[in-house]
Input
Amino acid sequence: MSSRPKRILVIANETVAGRALRRELLTRADGCAAEVLVVCPALNSRLRHWLSDEDRARMDAERRLEASLGALADLGVEARGLIGDADPLVAVEDALRGFAAEELVVSTHPPGRSNWLERDVARRCAERFLLPVTHVVVDLERERRAAA
Output
């Protein structure tokens, strides 16, 4: 039996701090050593991108990522993170250059609110990177209402 940790790559933007994603990662890491890399793309408006104004997008992504890493640490899941390209496929590809993941977790908003669902990001990741992909839907509005 190998003592090598399971390597899980997570790609998530606004949903990065969602409870559903944290539960999924806790389940995946339960009972085994796991290395988790969370990639949070720095999403930007087209105008800000065109003007080469990436600072706010990176700061927002860093804030979300830090909150997520802290929440995972509170659950006992050790993870590290990085800010990725605005295109989730490019962000995953970049991350895989330095992190040999065994599986990929793609976190999105629910249907109707998810650009990544419309673009079929989870399926495209599975086809492009030939990794097992788990798609986690995080409904942040429902989570906020439930917590109130």
User: Anything to note?
Assistant: Residues 55-74 form the longest helix (20 residues). The helical segments are 19-29, 46-50, 55-74, 88-98, 115-118, 121-129, 140-147. The chain has one domain: 6-147.
